[in-house]
Amino acid sequence: MMIETTDRPFSRVRHPAWVRLTHWTGAAATLALMVSGTAILLALPKLFWGETGANDAPAWITLPLPVNLEQTGWARNLHFLAAWIFVLNGAAYLGLALLRGHLRRRLLPEPAEIRPRALAGEIRSHLRLRGGAPPTGRYNALQKIAYLVVLLGLAPLMLLTGLTMSPGITAAWPELFSLFGGRQSARTIHFLSAFAMVAFLAIHIWQVLANRPVELMRGMTVGRTGNAEETR
Length: 232
Description:
Helix content is 63%, strand content 3%. The chain is mainly alpha-helical. A two-stranded antiparallel sheet has the order 1-4. A two-stranded antiparallel sheet has the order 2-3. The longest helix is centred in the middle third of the chain and has 28 residues, at 72-99.
């Protein structure tokens, strides 16, 4: 893919319009999911394994949160709406990323990047708080691996476990119970996956703030950077 230029000799396209649109749509849906998911969790701040669970039952994990049963109505409605926006937006991103070669060029690690010595060096760099965007503007191997885990692992897992908690869905596909070991097991996996997603987002935001935040935000909003950084 050719690098798009403007009249300004040092301006380059960092992210095409479809990447920026799906990024911010996904960000808005994720924020709605986090808010509504927290309200839903407060109705039963315990995680169980198996089919049944209740506030007065022994739990696999008891979270240090107050019980609040008054917020589940709006929270479930918002969660359902935001979840489908998240799913459809993610499917659109994945489809376009495959069709346009974005997944292969930007997110699949090169063989040299995933060699043990190269990965160990990147891990050491990140542990010293020196990790970030390389000078070429391309993602490093740890970033690529993290994005692929979220896109192809966490997101599908959250979708399937969320569907397993729906009586209408499991009435049609009871195999989901066997897949996850019961409704409460699916709920536990769903929330643990959500916690992992929040951790990923926290690291992602930290990386943006620690590495040229103005330039990175400009690239993800107007799509252009003010230097000759090579992107695709």
